[in-house]
Amino acid sequence: MTTLNWRHVVNGVALVGILVVAGIVTHTTPDEEQQQGPIVVRGEIGDELTGRNIRATVTDVRIAESVTASNGWAGTTPGVWVVVDASVEAVVDDTGASLGTAVIQVGDTTYSASVRPARGSIAEAVLDIGIATTGPLMFELPADLVESAEAGAAEIHLALNDDPRADSMLVVPVDLTAIPIDESIETDAQTWGGR
After folding, report:
1. How far is residue 12's CA from residue 57's CA, in Å, rounded to a whole number?
2. Which pLDDT value is given to residue 194?
3. For 59-74, what is the mean pLDDT?
4. Where exactly are the transmembrane stretches of this chain (predicted)?
5. I want to staple 137 with a disulfide (CB 3.0 to 4.6 A). Which of 16, 60, 84, 155 is the partner?
6. Nearest to 183 by CA among 105, 100, 81
7. Residue 55: CB partners within 8 Å, gap ≥ 6?
8. 3-state secondary structure the chain
9. Phi, psi of 27 (to 5 degrees)
10. What is the sign of the dihedral through the CA atoms of 68, 72, 75 and 81?
11. How far is the C-alpha of 160 from the C-alpha of 108, rounded, in Å?
12. Quick check: 137 and 121 in contact, CB under 8 A?
């Protein structure tokens, strides 16, 4: 009879152990968003950030009521232009590599870099390994948004693909409320090989 009670105790301890392990597995298994979400690499303005196949440095962020690109394109808006100066390059493979994601997220809303300046911007630029493409990205935002509380915690997102799920996404926080709004900005031409 003592052996039977001891067997019950061992079985009970084994059951508790199995339940503890099952609980740990359940609580540490990534959910679908974590499995499919981008692999975020965070840094500050001026930091060189490197992901799986993208390396970038955001060097400056400016805001203006109008912008003139180096190719002569002029953008006016009822809002404002946020101009982000950055250098971007491929790291591992440049076959089909381009800057597919260039957005500013303010709160729950994202604003894509304008492709209207064409070659006056590095939006959708083709990337090469070890040869940085440097130039401006231009974002058109509502004027009142850059002075909102949400703009204090805005983020610049850069990624190789237009759908960065399960791939690297470089994230640089920026306080848009701390940047003065200029009347106009003239951007530099994009260059290759410099940072």
Report:
1. 57
2. 64
3. 95
4. 6-25
5. 84
6. 81
7. 48, 49, 88, 89, 90, 91, 132
8. CHHHHHHHHHHHHHHHHHHHHHHHHHHHCCCHHHHHCCEEEECCCCCEEECCCCEEEEEEEEEEEEEECCCCCEEEEEEEEEEEEEEEEECCCCCCCECCEEEEEECCEEEECCCCCHHHCCCCCECEECECEEEEEEEEECCCHHHCCHHHHEEEEEECCCCCCCCEEEEEEECHHHCCEEEEEECCCCEECCC
9. -80, -15
10. negative
11. 21
12. yes
Q: Is the pLDDT of residue 185 over 90?
A: yes
Q: What are the tens digits of pLDDT across the range 78-118?
A: 999 999 999 999 999 888 888 989 999 999 999 999 999 98
Q: What is the reported pTM? A: 0.82
Confidence class of residue 180 from pLDDT cuts 50, 70 and 90?
very high
